[in-house]
Amino acid sequence: MKQILWFRRDLRVTDNAILANANKDVLPIFIFDKNILEKLPNDDKRVTFIYKSVLNLKTNLKKIGLDLAIFYDNPKSVFTKLKKYGFDEILCSVDFDSYSISRDKEIEKILPLNRYLDSFILNPNEHLKKDQTPYKVFTPFYKSLDPITSSSKISTFELKNKLNKIDFDYSFIPSLEMMGFIEQKLPDFLEKKPAELLNTFKEKIEKYDKARDYFYMDDTSKISVHLRFGLISPKEVFNYLKSEQNLNSESFIRELFWREFYNYILFHFPSSQTQNFQDIKINWSDNKEHFEKWCRGETGVPIVDAAMRHLNNTGTMHNRLRMITASFLTKNLFIDWKKGEKYFALKLLDYEASSNIGSWQWSASTGTDANPYFRVFNPYSQSKKFDPDAIFIKKVIPELRDVNPKLLHIENGLLEDIFIKYPKSIVDITNSRRQAIQNFKKAKN
């Protein structure tokens, strides 16, 4: 049996499904997929992070007697060439977004493709309601998982068989420059290993339930990028937190299963990637100027502008800020959530299709278990409540650092300061909220 171990978003050797299910003669590979990379800007930070992670995976595979063949090509071309070497099958982890599904269907026409659940804890085919239909609301879904969430440990994959490295030229390593990218400086937390991040986070987890909304504080786990690309598995995160005695990790565990829920929804309702989950047709605004100002962080609303500028500069955004900016785009500017989702997909270091789509549909009141359409975040009350001293805004927008924080939490409050040249809000918050509610009522009726 000659197997290809196709690493994708499982860039680790621990709790790895394809290593655990491999048998004897193997060729581990990673493909820098041209179909994906050619759509990205040359300064995409994620490519630098993935590149370093792939090289680290190669090192770790060598420690267990294997290696990693690295390709820069499209998958179809790679497997067409590898088929000539007489391989019997490909082992890989399963992905649920539309590109991954179509890609895998194309590859299994070349060689048998065995997919394993590796990036998530739950198999979406399981955990159905009594009538064998999928859950659409998180709370009953989560309650049904009590035997799992209340357990002290979830079993992980272990390397059972002695694997032999197939003779192959493992020496080729494409450079970032060769692939058309410029090496980027990564945020400090991405230079750390997942275990380091979890060790730091466990000291903060007791106050996570309340502190997680205060976006100026440094109290989140910072593990989402590592989870996204599989430097650590969600089961390993779960087990780590559960293994710490007297550690109140329930709130964080719940968030871990929100990630599972959105993947579950995308699996059962794949059309939700490009369509409203709810059967509702909305006549969104096509104001290109408003959308571009939102993207650049030039809306005249300090908290929205700071959040978007921070995203553009760092590739990161706190979850509370994601909700604020998404609500502003879809409710106050009344612009289609799909445009915002696509922009976040381009910018977020931790971009996860299922979570991003689910969260945007939640904010737009078009998704499963969505925010009610009449609930519209007021960005000024949000910034006042979760960052009263405007620490985050002032850090991101230095020209506002000497402004009285109170003015930043009042609509167009900065117009009262003649020494500050800051644009007026592009929409009236109250009127746009009222109009959005009316538009949703019409759409639902």
How would you describe this structure to a colleague?
Belongs to the DNA photolyase family. Pfam families: DNA_photolyase, FAD_binding_7. GO terms for molecular function: deoxyribodipyrimidine photo-lyase activity; DNA binding; FAD binding. Keywords: Chromophore, FAD, Flavoprotein, Lyase. This protein has helices at 17-21, 34-37, 45-63, 75-82, 98-107, 138-144, 146-149, 194-201, 208-211, 224-228, 234-243, 250-268, 288-296, 302-314, 319-332, 337-347, 353-363, 379-386, 391-396, 405-408, 429-444, and strands at residues 2-7, 25-33, 69-73, 89-93, 113-116, 164-165. The chain has 445 residues and is an alpha/beta fold. It folds into 3 domains: 2-119, Rossmann fold (3-Layer(aba) Sandwich); 120-155 and 194-268, Serine Threonine Protein Phosphatase 5, Tetratricopeptide repeat (Alpha Horseshoe), CATH 1.25.40.80; 288-444, DNA Cyclobutane Dipyrimidine Photolyase, subunit A, domain 3. Strands 1, 2, 3, 4, 5 and 6 form a 6-stranded parallel sheet that branches.
What's the layout of helices and strands?
Elements: E1 2-7, H1 17-21, E2 25-33, H2 34-37, H3 45-63, E3 69-73, H4 75-82, E4 89-93, H5 98-107, E5 113-116, H6 138-144, H7 146-149, E6 164-165, H8 194-201, H9 208-211, H10 224-228, H11 234-243, H12 250-268, H13 288-296, H14 302-314, H15 319-332, H16 337-347, H17 353-363, H18 379-386, H19 391-396, H20 405-408, H21 429-444
